[in-house]
Amino acid sequence: MPPSSTVMVIEDDPDCLEAMTVVLEHAGCMVSVAADGHEALRALEAGPPPDLILLDLMLPVMDGWQF
Question: What is the structure's pLDDT at 18?
């Protein structure tokens, strides 16, 4: 990905979330996070869309399939 790309990570497992965030930030990406589909939708409505969304399919509240 080009430097300063934005990535939204939607993941409820804190260890996976931290690992993905560290790797993406080390690659020069700006990272935003959400713990479930509802939280992600609110964030997407509030700001510009990310360049990439990494989405866990097995989430609480609203899963990846519903998202």
Answer: 97
